[in-house]
Amino acid sequence: MTRVVAVNGGLGDPSSTRLLVDRIAEAVGARLGGGAKVEIIDLREAAVDIARSMTTGFASGAARDGVDAVESADALIVASPVFNASYSGLFKSFFDLVDVEAMAGKPVLIGATGGSPRHSMVLDHAMRPLFSYLRSVVVPTAIYAAAEDWAPTSGDTATLSGRIDRAAGELVALLGVPAPESPAPVVDKVERRQMATEAAGIANFARLLGNSTPAG
Ligand SMILES: Cc1cc2nc3c(=O)[nH]c(=O)nc-3n(C[C@H](O)[C@H](O)[C@H](O)COP(=O)(O)O)c2cc1C
Question: Counting beta carbons within 10 angstroms of the beta carbon of residue 177, is it exposed (0 to 12), middle (13 to 18) or buried (19 or more)?
């Protein structure tokens, strides 16, 4: 079974980063179908263990569980809130505990949330270089959600959904998992009648062509 682990670096409760992670996890899960599991880790729950692990030099407690889940995952979804124009310190500390070798070649989808839309470049200035250093394969589409993107009337809501969908498609493509079988298209009565008429027309046309062919 394909395992995707989503790391939420949000500290708030409720957390807008968790909201973003949920949307991305849902999109990735839908594309992977029943043969995959998407698991979400909230770093705020492991904050104390992450800090303690930084001082001891090895991951323990909830930090260890998170690191193990990330290292053994087939692909990652990672998202951090923007704090002073970068990812949060907790997010960085967590990935400082992860083994670089375990991250090499792993497909990663990156996301961030911020109060201001002007800090969306955090994804390309900070987040992408971090995962490039770890030799992970970062999908081309990164997802940034500013406060205004969540408003139902915002013009950007559609853009956010579109970006989530595109990035999810890119991550699943990297996993090389065949898309789940799509349900048979629903054909209503009118459509079926139209199709029958068209088929009859094609058959007639073929007959006419056959009749006009000179006998050889
Ligand atoms: C200490 C701190 C620094 C922040 N710095 C920025 C910033 O530089 N740019 C920005 O757009 N938002 C900034 N924010 C706002 C957060 O990025 C935003 O509220 C985020 O969505 C919170 O995520 P969460 O709800 O998942 O914790 C900052 C918030 C805090 C608490």
Answer: middle
